[in-house]
Amino acid sequence: MTIEIKAPTLPESVPDGTIATWYKKIGDPVAMDELLVDIETDKVVIEVVSPTDGTLKEILKNSGDTIVSNEAIGSVEPGDAPTVDDNLSDSSVDEHTEDSASPSLPESSDDRIISPAARKLIEENQLAVAAIAGTGKDSRITKEDVVNFITAPAPQQRPVTEVPGDPLTSSLERSNQERIEERVPMSRLRAKVAERMLQATQTTAMLTTFNEVSMQAVIGIRNRHKEEFEKTHDGVRLGFMSFFVRACTEALKKFPGVNASIDGDDIVYHGYQDIGVAVSSSRGLVVPVLRNADNKGLAHIEKEIRTFTEKAREGKLAIEDMTGGTFTISNGGVFGSLLSTPILNPPQTAILGMHKIQERPMAVGGEVKILPMMYLALSYDHRIMDGKEAVQFLVAIKELLEDPTRLLLEI
Is the domain defined by 189-409 classed in CATH 3.30.559.10? Predict the structure, then answer.
């Protein structure tokens, strides 16, 4: 009697998913809780494991197929648990046999786990395995890792020994200078990001207001206390984002229109502050949410952000981590951005854009001083709030950051 392998229950906000990579073939031995297949949704990649020891009997949904909640995608024939030797996936077995018997992989994989789809791409493109970072379970190299590796670096040219006047050399030079293109399918996450960005620009009355903030006070606090802070809070480092989260939380309390969303013909004012913090991952930009940020101190906020960042890099963010935010902060400054216009994250009303800290001459009390300045950008939905409320909200953030004692006094 076979046991069905079912897709997981997806949240209401995620209608379907796509089969990304099967790590086993029909007839392969499997162990209970062994990773069988990855399912990609608009937000995260979900791992589906074997429900029992046995043999993979059938695959009902192949890579690229769309699935819905609890849909059968394959089946396992129960049996004895495979031995260690038997349970080596073909990706790891082939990794040794092919490396020793075939020159298809240009560089040793050093016992790294490679999905079948990724291995095929590596062989076709003659890539160096050691240079590819694996983001799957146990640092497994996935197809997406290989695609990212192929598209990220600039194409390298082969050196050509030039012989002046030699037409063959000129022909080789022209050949090597030809532009190289690589066409890859858009991931579901990137497609969803594109869809939401287009939706935000087409369905909202988005407007952006700008201001600048002196980071001297925050930098001073950080420099004076960062070592003691790290020792006291088990290695958690004091960054700038926690100050911005706290400043936004207090400002949202004063300006509830910024902490609202549109639901049909109604405006929903949220009586809590769930702050989304945009972080970069191998799959693109993701926005995990800090729940009830108004009840958290700087250390708690920094610890959660660090956890989210690690989970994003490992591809382990859950759908629950990224749903339900009421306001978003995006920090383009970590990439060197001096000024930008952030796009709304529907159905939220506003998003704050942080930027690079840069020393600039500023007039202070009739004197010119060199201060570490940052441009702030607040994009907001003009359907819900007026420019006055948006500007005052941004000014409130500026005042809280330039005088952080206000955060302690809640004034």
Answer: yes
